[in-house]
Each structure stands twice: as C-alpha cells, then as structure tokens.
Write a structure and sequence with these properties.
about 350 residues, alpha/beta, Rossmann fold, Dehydroquinate synthase-like, alpha domain, 2 domains, two-stranded antiparallel ribbon, about 50% helix, binds nicotinamide-adenine-dinucleotide
Length: about 350
C-alpha cells in the first residue's frame, strides 16, 4: 500500500478518493492548538467534515505518551468505532505520531489520513508511516509502521504557527537538499526564507523523502540515509531539553547538519567549501540560532542512541547527493570535529 498525496486545489480529487473507500465512520483528531487554529479551516475546505465527531487531546510532546493513547482508545470505544473507520489527524508531527500509533493498534489497525499543520510535519513526519509515543523517558521508543492512506498538504495552515516552530521545519528541507543533489542544494541555499513555505518547495521535499521511503519502508538500508545530521541532532536536542532553552527538533537538525558535514569532511574528505557555504547560509537565515554544547554534554545521549551500540554509527555524506549509512565514527574523530566547529 502507498500513501496518496493531495495538494491545495486537489480537494475534489481527495473527496472522490475518500468516497471510493466507503468508510462507515469518519472521525477527526486534533490537539488543543490545532483544534482552535486549524479545524475551522479544515471544515471550511471540506464542508462534509463539519458534522464529524472530534477527539481533542492536549498539545505537546509531554502528552505523546501511553496515558493519552488510553484516553483516545476510550473515546473510540465510546463512539463504537468499527474497523471500517477513517481517523483524520489535523496537527503536527507530535499528534500524527500518537494518532497513527493509536489507529494502528485499535481493532488491529484502522485507516488514517493526515492533514499536517507544521512545516516539519508537511515535509517529514507525515511521510513514511512511522508512528510513535515516548515511553519511560525515551523518545519515540514505542511505535509501529502504519502508512496513512492519504495526506492533504496546504500551506494555509502555516499562517498561525509561531515563527520559531515554523522556521524549524527548514532544517529537514535543507537535509533533503543535501541528500538529493548539488543542483538542489545550490537552489535551496539561495532561497529566501518565505520560499520554503511554498507548496512547490514543500512538495519537492516531500517527494524526495517519499521516494526513499517507498524503496525501504522498514528502514533496513536506503531509508537510513535520512538519519544524516540526526545522530548529533538528537543528542543536542536531548541535552537542550534538560536546560531552560530547549531547542525544537528542526533547530537541532540545523546544528546537526553543520556538525555532520564536518564529520563527513574528516572521514570522506567532503570539500571544506561545502561546510563554509552551509555556515554562511545558517548565519544569514538563522542569525539567532545559538546553542552551546561540547562533547561531554552530548556524549551520554549519543551513547543512548540505539544505533550506537558498538561505537558511533552515523549516516554521512561522501559528496552532496551521496550518503553512506552505518559509518563508524571514532572517539578521536568526534573530538576532532569539535575542534573544527
Ligand atoms: N514520524 C516521523 O517520521 C517523524 C518525523 C519527524 C518528526 N516527528 C515527530 O514530530 C514531532 C514534532 O512535530 P512538529 O515539529 O510538527 O511540531 P508539533 O506537532 O509538536 O507542534 C508544535 C506546536 O505547534 C502547535 N501547532 C501545530 N500546528 C499549528 C498551527 N498550524 N498553528 C498553530 N499552532 C500549531 C502544536 O499544537 C504544538 O503546540 C516530534 O514528536 C517528532 O518526534 C516524527
């Protein structure tokens, strides 16, 4: 099964597609913010959803847990939802991770459709069917693969996002550009910030990830290239969550790219000018993004990373558009990368 993607102006095609599925019930799920900001827009665009039952959950990563799942399962039971139900999720990656997990386990799996409402969820979290909740202090360590049957992409939802959350989604788009090709990278590093929010660029980034996911849904080989920048990013993000100025995931990815480009230079002689070009772009577009960390700060988080059981393993760039996965990174190489930061 594949996910069908529908974009702004393809609303009637989406409705025909849904009608062909003959769902017995359709239910929407939103969080406290997206219920206020996005549901009214969704109902305006899709009048057939005006009378649909809704489940509302509290917003935020702190609620992406088993207690919220239990609440949603109870609500679904009360509504007597049958197997032939569609759950439409209106929200960012936190909500779609949880809603996808709940849907994949209710009656052994009901269909979902995602309406992503953050930039990050449009270009990343809505694609590829990874669902997750956080458990026992560990992020995303319980989850399933459950591809949504459809996603609806419309940048109209981005207008109400706080600016830092909005811009943080650019991190994943830049990562995709570096993994894609030199041409894509050169185009993206000269874009104005607003250009990233266009449906064309969202679609381009989404299609790049989706092509990879369709070849390796279960993350056994090619999909691991999407981990580029993420080993360091996850460690920085986790470390930042302990302090008073936590980073958003996409912000940590922006810093992770810088760091893993340096490691790519040390290990694969990736040309130095690529690092300089990226630094220059980062300074220009994210002048406020500063976060101090050293190796000791992030080391314990790197070691917790399940990919790093036998030494550090990362996905690094041999050149732009060519990623090697499972690259072994030594302690000495990590230390050297900090000197070059
Ligand atoms: N499954 C995947 O492949 C995948 C990929 C990347 C990230 N993720 C997960 O995604 C989560 C981060 O998601 P995110 O960056 O989309 O943020 P988010 O879903 O946490 O949303 C951030 C905040 O913005 C609010 N919000 C969302 N849309 C809004 C809108 N249009 N207007 C106003 N407020 C809005 C939310 O209520 C929340 O308070 C993390 O939990 C991460 O693990 C999953």
């Amino acid at each position: 099964m594949k996910t069908s993607f529908f974009y702004a102006n393809e609303e009637s095609e989406l409705q025909v597609y849904l009608a062909s599925k003959n769902y017995q019930q359709i239910v929407c799920i939103a969080d406290a913010h997206t219920n206020g900001f996005c549901m009214p827009i969704v109902k305006k665009i899709f009048p057939f959803l005006q009378t649909t039952t809704q489940i509302i959950i509290p917003e935020g990563e702190q609620n992406k847990n088993i207690s919220t799942c239990i609440y949603v399962w109870h609500e679904m039971e009360k509504m007597q939802l049958e197997k032939n139900t569609l759950l439409i999720c209106v929200g960012g990656g936190t909500l779609s991770d949880l809603a996808g997990f709940v849907a994949s386990t209710y009656k052994r799996g009901i269909d979902t459709m995602l309406i992503p409402t953050t930039l990050l969820s449009m270009v990343d979290a809505c694609i590829g069917g990874k669902t997750a909740i956080d458990f026992s202090g560990n992020k995303n360590n319980i989850g399933t693969y459950h591809l949504p049957i459809a996603c609806y992409l419309n940048p109209i939802f981005l207008h109400t996002l706080p600016i830092r959350i909005l811009q943080s989604g650019i991190g994943e788009m830049m990562k995709h550009a570096l993994l894609c090709s030199t041409d894509r990278w050169h185009t993206y590093r000269t874009l104005k910030i607003e250009d990233f929010y266009s449906i064309e660029k969202i679609r381009e980034s989404l299609v790049f990830k989706n092509n990879i996911v369709e070849q390796d849904l279960h993350d056994l080989s090619l999909r691991q290239s999407l981990n580029f920048a993420h080993s360091i990013a996850h460690a920085i993000e986790s470390y930042s969550l302990q302090g008073s100025t936590p980073l958003y995931h996409g912000e940590a990815v922006l810093l992770g790219i810088r760091h893993e480009l340096i490691l790519s230079h040390i290990i694969f002689q990736l040309p130095q000018f690529i690092i300089s070009d990226y630094e220059q772009w980062l300074q220009q577009c994210f002048p406020e993004l500063h976060f101090n960390y050293n190796l000791a700060d992030i080391q314990s988080f790197l070691q917790q990373d399940k990919k790093n059981r036998d030494g550090y393993r990362m996905s690094l760039l041999k050149e732009i558009g060519v990623c090697e996965t499972q690259v072994r990174v030594s302690e000495a190489q990590l230390q050297e990368s900090f000197k070059l930061l």
